[in-house]
Amino acid sequence: MHIMEGYLPVQWAIFWWVVALPFFVLGLRSLKKITEANPELKLLLALAGAFTFVLSALKIPSVTGSSSHPTGTGLGAVLFGPLSMSVLGSLVLLFQAILLAHGGLTTLGANAFSMAITGPFVAYWIYCLVIKSGNQRLAIFLASALADLVTYIVTSVQLALAFPAATGGFIASFLKFAGIFAITQIPLAISEGLLTVLVWNWLSSYGREELQMLQLIKQEKPS
Asked: What is the pLDDT of residues 93-133, one digit of tens each?
């Protein structure tokens, strides 16, 4: 991740676009509700997007046709929910493809599904599960780190589906891609988890009102 421009066969590029678009549309509705009801949260929303942009722009060459880097989606998923991050993450990927040649337009659907959709949903579910223990920092760390790792597992699946090995097919190809990613991605995921905890601590000190407002919004939503 990101899968570079033109790397995926046309049928797979179209397939991932079709899969990702419904989440993007639902995410737009979610963001509209949040910003209309609480316009003062726009600054925090921008911070979550900027955090994702900066971290995911730290490109480390990895597997042919892709790269390793932090994703930065865990923070926004915990703050605003996974649907909101489907929009923020997709916009980040779009600007990176246009301005940095990082990723691509034809592969935007695949990249968005792995980084802006699957990662945030995993982060949100992990946070909701671990926060029940009462350890918020651990919940933030695991949400961010596992969102990073899952993003690359999904990317490995996408590459394996598009390029199955001559011997061993999808499984052999997946193990190859995932194994190479793991060398750089496991330490990156741990580092991202620690960094996200530091940012959360900063928000807890200087953005307490916004965090309390978000907590109230979450409590008002049906489970």
From this structure: 999 999 888 888 999 999 999 999 999 999 999 999 999 98
Are the beta carbons of 146 and 122 closer than 8 angstroms?
yes
Nearby residues of 52 by Cβ (< 8 Å), 6 or more positions away: 71, 72, 73, 75, 76, 85, 88, 89, 92
- Torsion sign across C-alpha atoms 65, 92, 30, 151: positive
Q: Could you report the per-residue pLDDT of 6-19, keeping only the tens digit for each?
A: 899 999 999 999 99
Residue 157 and residue 126 in contact, taking contact as beta carbons nearer than 8 Å:
no
Give 94: exposed, middle or buried? Use CB within 10 Å, 0-12, 13-18, 19+: middle
CA–CA distance, 102 with 113 (Å, rounded to integer): 16
DSSP string, 182-221: HHHHHHHHHHHHHHHHHHHHHHHHH-HHHHHHHHHHHHHS
- Dist. CA 161–CA 53, nearest whole Å: 27
Sign of CA dihedral 24, 160, 145, 199: negative
| DSSP character at residue 40 | G
Strand-pairing partners, residue 169, are: 165
